[in-house]
Design goal:
This is VCBS repeat-containing protein. This protein is mainly β. The protein contains no helices and 10 strands. It has a single domain, classed as Thrombin, subunit H.
Length: 121
């Protein structure tokens, strides 16, 4: 498997990559956070083991990590994004076969670099 090199400025600062079958297509897809652009992208893997053009989704400020899991027990993988600068997490629920992920954002008690307010010294 190989990929073409891109000069696309929108995707030049990945901060985290997670692998999972997001669209239930039987192939691993890539979820990539871009902290400098306040978004994340999904590269869906097609039947020929080629990644399709990336689809981007807006996040809160400075997404630095991602989790792929079935968070609402509907047998579809959802995406959780950790946003450092806005001290929040965004949950992107996978509720269709289209690349649409309605989101819910929760504020957290994170002060900085994963230090919880009650445990910081």
């Amino acid at each position: 498997m190989c990929w073409a090199v891109s000069d696309d400025q929108e995707y030049n600062s990945p901060s985290f990559v997670r692998v999972g079958d997001v669209n239930n297509g039987g192939k691993f897809d890539l979820v990539i956070t871009y902290s400098n652009h306040n978004n994340f992208g999904i590269l869906f893997n097609n039947a020929a083991n080629q990644f399709l053009t990336q689809i981007s989704y807006d996040t809160d400020k400075e997404p630095i990590s991602a989790l792929i899991a079935d968070l609402n027990y509907d047998k579809k993988l959802d995406i959780l994004i950790v946003n450092r600068k806005s001290h929040s997490i965004g949950i992107y629920f996978n509720n269709s076969h289209k690349p649409e992920f309605p989101s819910v954002t929760y504020s957290t008690q994170i002060e900085s670099d994963f230090c919880w307010r009650r445990s910081c010294q």
